[in-house]
# Entry
Amino acid sequence: QVQLVESGGGPVQAGGSLKPSCVVSGYIFSSCEMGWYRQASGKERRLVSLIRSDGTTSYEDSVQGRFTISQDNATNTLYLQMNSLKTEDTAVYYCAADKPRVGGYCVKWDYWGQGTQVTVSS
# Structure
């Protein structure tokens, strides 16, 4: 059974940094894409960043240059280093992963964690 467990959110002042982590069990890293979504109150859940099976990464425009996604295959942990935080970064952050299937294709974003709250104050 695949489980994703986030931690590392919390309150922070604008301009500060946080590094949420997501421990993944029952899943082979680098088999498909993994990523971080966020959902602000009253808004849709949006993709913030992803890391592909080849290690390349992508970011939403609003976090480009401030956030860095990374993974540690030895500990099965996905990270999101968040620097220069802004009040508009306040949201629940979710890690997510594709579901690998036979034949080499991936079911998009089939696994989700429970989320970790990030609150940025001015």
Q: What stands out?
A: The CA atoms of residues 39 and 114 lie 12 Å apart. The radius of gyration is 14 Å. The chain is about 0% helix and 50% strand. The mean pLDDT is 95.
